[in-house]
């Protein structure tokens, strides 16, 4: 049962990575922008009041913001991972098991967190 869960978890993480990559691309933003513009100008606003026009504009901007935020988060996250990997790789006493930790599964990351929590407790006990 645990192996089925692990396989499902790995599959889900691959899908999540693929979706965030797609949502963070410039092409996807451009397509979404074209879709919002087409949707906005395709509606007949002659019989609608200004509140509906403003509501539709807000919904369009909110929808496009998703893509901008995802792109910025992907860029920031990637640069942060590179910086941390460089620090870990340049320190001789650091454990190389955390290099490219962003590509590990959630279960592997939780196991590493437990190891480091235990290590921190040992260090605290040694200080006392």
In short:
The protein is mostly helical.
Could you describe the 3D structure shown?
- The protein is mostly helical and about 130 residues long.
- The protein has one domain.
- Helices cover about 80% and strands about 0% of the residues.
- The chain is built from four helices and no strands.
- It has helices spanning about 1-25, 25-40, 50-90, 105-125.
- α2 packs antiparallel against α3 (about 50-90).
- The longest helix has about 40 residues, at about 50-90.
- It is elongated.
- The model has no long low-confidence stretch (mean pLDDT about 80).
List keywords for this structure.
single chain, 128 residues, mainly alpha, elongated
For the record, the count of structural domains works out to 1
List the helices and strands in order: HHHH
For the largest beta-sheet, the strand count, sense and barrel status come to: none
Helix content: over 70%
Number of strands: 0
Classification by helices and strands: mainly alpha
Principal-axes geometry comes out as elongated
* Number of helices, where a helix is a run of at least 4 consecutive DSSP H or I residues: 4
* Average residue pLDDT: 81
| Rg calc | 23 Å
Estimate what percentage of residues fall within beta strands.
under 5%
> Span from first to last CA?
43 Å
Report low-confidence residues grouped into runs of 5 or more: none
């Amino acid at each position: 049962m645990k192996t089925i869960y692990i396989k499902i978890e790995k599959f889900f993480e691959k899908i999540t990575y693929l979706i965030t990559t797609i949502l963070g691309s410039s092409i996807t933003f451009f397509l979404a922008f074209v879709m919002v513009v087409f949707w906005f100008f395709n509606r007949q606003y002659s019989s609608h009041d200004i509140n509906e026009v403003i509501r539709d504009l807000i919904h369009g901007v909110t929808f496009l913001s998703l893509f901008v935020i995802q792109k910025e988060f992907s860029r920031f996250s990637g640069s942060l991972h590179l910086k941390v990997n460089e620090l870990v790789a340049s320190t001789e006493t650091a454990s190389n098991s955390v290099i490219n930790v962003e590509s590990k599964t959630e279960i592997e990351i939780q196991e590493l967190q437990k190891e480091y929590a235990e290590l921190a407790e040992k260090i605290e006990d040694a200080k006392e």
